[in-house]
Recover the amino acids of this structure.
């Protein structure tokens, strides 16, 4: 589930769906609804996205992926997922990812859609994109959002092609995150940033954000309109991909 609470005029959304905090269609719909509520409430200054326990999010639910009966079901899911990811990316108020733990695959993608990423400074935390090792490509909105969050094509290439996991210091050096903080300062620092950006006269943050992200958002919309999602998503029914998904799911369930 995605839990919501409001503190100091800031919405805190917490992935809380077991030890992996996997992202399901229900969680995506909750995220969309909570963002709409936060956008409409003039008292809300911004949103913090975080996780419960030792994981921010391990990515999309593998049991959900394995439950898809045909490519049309996969397309239906990703059509909605792409819309919601873009809504998060272009949300007009500040969104801070407060990374409390492991941030992997889809979890990293949604963190990269946020305006700023703060990670708990703990040596065991890992962050990265493992899709290539499973056999799944990134969707149009996903790769555009991740590429936007990095400062070079080379970093994007190395992160995506090798599927490595990075500790906090490496993640900071690569630009996957913006700050490392002690655990007890994770949420307070996120609130501090939201207040810093929203308390300026004239609300300059929103037009600046939309200006910076406009080109990427327009490219996503254009490519989604012109692309063949069904062709790209046939990989979900590749025998080796499904075996790998089943293996990873079994390992994560232990």
């Amino acid at each position: 589930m995605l839990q919501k609470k409001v503190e100091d005029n800031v919405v805190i959304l917490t992935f809380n769906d077991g030890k992996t905090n996997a992202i399901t269609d229900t969680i995506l719909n909750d995220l969309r609804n909570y963002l709409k509520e936060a956008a409409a409430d003039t008292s809300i200054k911004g949103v913090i996205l975080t996780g419960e326990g030792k994981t921010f999010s391990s990515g999309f639910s593998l049991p959900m992926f394995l439950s898809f009966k045909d490519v049309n079901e996969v397309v239906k899911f990703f059509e909605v997922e792409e819309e919601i990811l873009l809504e998060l990316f272009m949300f007009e108020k500040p969104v801070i990812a407060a990374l409390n733990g492991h941030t992997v695959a889809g979890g990293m993608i949604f963190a990269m859609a946020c305006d700023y990423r703060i990670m708990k400074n703990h040596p065991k935390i890992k962050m990265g994109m493992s899709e290539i090792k499973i056999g799944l490509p990134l969707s149009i909105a996903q790769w555009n959002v991740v590429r936007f969050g990095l400062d070079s094509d080379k970093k994007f290439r190395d992160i995506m092609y090798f599927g490595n996991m990075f500790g906090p210091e490496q993640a900071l050096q690569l630009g996957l995150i913006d700050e490392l903080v002690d655990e007890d300062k994770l949420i307070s620092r996120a609130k501090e940033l939201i207040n810093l950006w929203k308390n300026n006269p004239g609300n300059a943050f929103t037009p600046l954000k939309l200006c910076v992200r406009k080109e990427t958002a327009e490219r996503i919309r254009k490519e989604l309109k012109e692309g063949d999602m069904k062709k790209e998503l046939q990989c979900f029914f590749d025998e080796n991909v499904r075996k790998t998904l089943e293996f990873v799911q079994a390992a994560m369930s232990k």
In short: The mean pLDDT is 94. The beta strands are 2-7, 10-15, 46-51, 55-57, 95-99, 102-104, 116-120, 127-128, 165-166, 179-181. The chain has one domain: 2-198. The domain at 2-198 is CATH 3.90.226.10 (2-enoyl-CoA Hydratase; Chain A, domain 1).
